[in-house]
Fold this sequence. Notes:
transmembrane helix; transmembrane; two-stranded antiparallel ribbon; DUF2029 domain-containing protein; mainly alpha
Amino acid sequence: METGRRASPLVAASVTLVALVTMALGYLNKARCAGPPFDAAGRSEAFDRIKDATVCYSDIQFLWLDRGIDQHLFPYVGGAIAPDGTLTGGTVEYPVLSGLLMWLGALGSHTDAEFLAWSAVLLAPFGAVTAWMLGRLTGRVALIWSASPALVLYAFHNWELPVVATTVGAVAVMATRLPLRVRAVVAAVLLGIGFCLKLYPGAFVLPLAAHVLYANASTGRRDVRGALGVLAAAGATVGAINVPFAVVGFDGWRASFAFQGLRRVDITTNSVWYWGVRYLFETPGATPEVSTAADAAFQSAVDLLSPVLVLLSFAGALWFGRRRLAVVGTYPWVQTSAVMLTGFLLFHKVHSPQYTLWILPFFVLLRVPWQVVGAYLMTDVVVGVGVFRWFAALAAGTDASAEESLVVLGVWARTALLLVLLVVFARAAVRTPTTRRARPTARRLESEEVPA
């Protein structure tokens, strides 16, 4: 990001206010699933009945049970994973800081409705801070975040808002006037914290280190010490947060990672692996034994191919960033991070609906064509609504072919758009706030300035 350039606080405050209103709508949507009467475990009786048909499902409310959250167990320390993949003893399937947020949200809660409400109270400030930072960095374009339907659908679907805030915070820090090494170390710490929330910001440390390494590329000098400092700061942050949990309760800490590794590709994963590659392993009319063997082969192939392709996409993004260095004069770490995230979304075996919140800030920070942004957000609504309507039709035993077709269309349209974004992000310029300049004849709104 260009250093020193900021939109006015009034614009940022307006963007933040819109985000608060949007998140309030998001909470009201999710709260339709929560409330009395409750069963003996504190589960809203309406949840299972209406969560899919009315698209008010949230992982927050769902995970009130079966993770020790309702029992207020401190996460990970006494936990483990059973041979069948079931988590026990307070372990949750997310990195430790997300687990701590879940535990905090449950402390004063005795029902899933209270857990949803307190979790929203914890998460909303992160969404608001993200809006403020994006508003200051880009101006009114930040409404892509604040007024997005994705924020209504997913602000309180899972625990995504804190990790998004760390990523945007790293970009905001890099746009200050502090010395580069200082900025980069602080940004690396934020990305390390993000890794301890949802893992993916950890990948962005590599392009950030490259940005510091090639900061003086015009002189032919490389700042190796500065780049190593970035890697060390991120690594020390991750270690300081994770080591206490690993020491006190290794089995519970390890179980959160093992759970993700054991996850199968099924109707809940919303990925091209399920809606495309799976068919290569199926034989129409096959016996149950053959079908079971084919599914096992499919799952094994995905377990190998998915991480390999993700890592290859990361390597390709870093390589292309190095190529762009000669064109733009600095290593484009924000663009490279966006490409890495896009590669992850394309090739990871799971594509949960709320992942849209991860990519949304890059639509703000980078100059992405409005047509692509609009198409992606529309496609996201199709998938985000369609998949739950499909689940509802399946549960009701009614004809679900129309809903299934909608999901398939959405998944493949999103995949096509992600392929487009691989190229768009790689070549995109960074946004800066729009400004008004005096002209001899009139005053007009200038187009967004792009740093050289």
